[in-house]
Amino acid sequence: MTDSPAAGHRADAPVAIRCFVLTISDSRTAADDKSGDAIAALLGSAGHAVSGRKSVKDDPRAIRDAVSFAAKSGAHDAVITTGGTGLSPRDGTYETLSALFDRTIDGFGELFRMLSYQEVGAAAMLSRATAGTIGRTAIFALPGSENAVTLAMEKLILPELGHVVRELRK
């Protein structure tokens, strides 16, 4: 894998990415947002910057406004959301973000569910984790579970975040 074209791209990728963290929840507050805290901590440990952070209710308009503003502000290279990706009637993150994406990163959701399956079994199929782009900003929508967030960050996002941003800057 080290001699693949992707390895060369990773070598040329920026190392410090500016990330906006958005928690989507009807029940969590800043005081008990373990998933948002995990994202921020993992980004910091990897040398990336949390360039903004916010919490919104699981409401399509609030989600759309927060993600659109963050993506179009020019202050963030990536937006990482947590929450609202399940199947309950209030979970609207997938529909809201899918309608905003210029391009989807289909492999993200596929790989996340594959990795999640190894941990939680068939329940992984209930996740609607997704990713895409808005302009030159990468958007990653993660479940609300702290374990799921950690899995996605460690196995998928952190290893490729610089590479994704490199591609978007071309």
Kindly report the CATH topology: Molybdenum Cofactor Biosythetic Enzyme, Chain A
Distance between the termini: 23 Å
Instruction: Give the CATH class.
Output: Alpha Beta
Low-confidence stretches: none
What do the pLDDT scores average to?
95
Largest sheet: 6 strands, mixed
- Shape call: globular
Residue fraction in strands: 15-25%
Keyword list:
170 residues, alpha/beta, Molybdenum Cofactor Biosythetic Enzyme, Chain A, six-stranded mixed beta sheet, 6 helices, globular
Q: Can you tell me about this structure?
A:
The protein has a single domain, classed as 3-Layer(aba) Sandwich (Molybdenum Cofactor Biosythetic Enzyme, Chain A), CATH 3.40.980. The protein contains six helices and six strands, in the order H-E-H-E-H-E-H-E-H-E-E-H. The protein has a six-stranded mixed beta sheet, sandwiched between helices. Helix 1 packs across helix 6 and helix 2 packs across helix 6. The two termini are 23 Å apart. The relative contact order is 0.19.
